[in-house]
Hints:
Layout: E1 2-3, H1 18-23, H2 42-60, E2 64-65, H3 77-80, E3 84-86, E4 92-95, E5 101-104, E6 106-112, H4 119-128, E7 132-138, H5 140-145, E8 148-149, H6 155-175, E9 180-184, H7 187-190, H8 192-207, E10 213-217, E11 247-251, E12 269-275, H9 285-296, E13 304-308, H10 317-338
Amino acid sequence: MATSIVGSYPQPGWLVDRAHLAGTGPARARDPQLWRPGPDTIVEAQDDATVIAVDAQERAGLDIVTDGEARRESYSNHFATALEGIDVDNPGTRVGRNGKSQRVPRIVGPVTRPRSIQARDTEFLRARTGRLAKITMPGPFTMSQNAQDDHYGDGEALAFALADACHAEMLDLFAAGADIVQIDEPYMQAVPDAARAYGLAALNHALRDAPGTTAVHLCFGYAAKMPGQKPSGYSFLPELAGCVCDHVSIESAQPDIDLGVLGDLAGKTVALGVIDLSTEDVETPEVISDRVRRALRHHRPEQLVLSTDCGMKYLTRAAADGKMASMVAAAGALREELGV
């Protein structure tokens, strides 16, 4: 029963304009207004913020450590806008899952990956932790749904082109020292019919022949950007039993979903979201343990990883640190209780 976070840790206020971050949705196109340092110091500043994120996770006692995604404006655009075939200077528009129009990458030619985008990030993480290192990247289906396609004219063709780029990147991330590569695919939940039609096939294409542990994260969106009650169940989740990934990462703390669905994922390790990111309040270990026990009715403890519902970037650092420490305490108590 290991512990981890989905990916992001709060970026310091000296690195990003947190008021700007809070006032906008997750960036799809580039958003240079977010950054406080100038071009001469931005890389050093991002490295320093990554060290803070890694140290915070290790102090909390997490078993699996990420780089905190400190170098990213959002979980997706850091990768998507680095690809060839994207007009980064003239973004397109698309209606997002919140029903609002947003700026997105505009596809103007064949999508290719000119070089590894996150290998240095992975090497930096690997050099700073002896624990299991997880690096995250957006999935091909989600990127295809967050783009204006002026080239392919076919969602499946675009998704498979993006899957080729993801596959090449995945291999480079394992070579750079990642123990776990996680693909973030929230739009499989948001657009389930297309996910069934071709999204899962594109995801499997991206993850084929992985030389290490792979994970797929599905969620309902950042709690800070999705006010109100979340659905009580996933519109696309049992289908991931047919995914070649090893881990499936889901949220279950805030939405309070029916965890009977875990029975469909008996062959997978499940990274279970047990930390509610809709509030700054730090849950007690007892509250977290109760959330885990709901899952234990449907999944074996050795196949569970305790995690946050989603990325923590919109939290304060104090809340994030407290929630991680409480989760680790709950995991320790449960291991003793269950003898695992």
